[in-house]
Amino acid sequence: SSDRTLKVWNLQTGQVIASIGLDGALQCVAVTRQDDHMLVVAGDAGGALYCLELVEPVGQFSVGSRALGRFADEPAYEVK
Questions:
Q1: What does the pLDDT look like over 22-49, one tens digit per residue?
Q2: 36 phi and psi, to 5 degrees?
Q3: From CA 46, how far away is CA 27, in angstroms rounded?
Q4: Rounded to an integer, what distance in angstroms lies between the CA atom of residue 44 and that of residue 55?
Q5: DSSP-derived secondary structure for 22-71
Q6: Whether the predicted model's global pTM rises above the 0.85 cut
Q7: Residue 4 DSSP class
Q8: CB 32 within 8 Å of CB 55
Q9: For residue 8, what is the enclosing H or E element?
């Protein structure tokens, strides 16, 4: 969101299960889930990518996050 946070909500309980601060305003999010893992990848306005792997033990999620990298303002390649 514009307050530079990413929150993942449990829609059944209405509780926040993960929250991280971003370097810039949130621009995009992709989510995938397989078995007891959920992967959330988000990008901020500064070009940073964040990867959250949520693992669901019994009744709760443990959260890990890291910035994957940052895109350059000027790409070093040509788009054809």
A1: 888 889 999 988 887 888 899 988 888 8
A2: -100, 15
A3: 9
A4: 23
A5: -SS-EEEEEEEEETTEEEEEEEETTSEEEEEEEE--TT--EEEEEEEEE-
A6: no
A7: S
A8: no
A9: strand 5-10
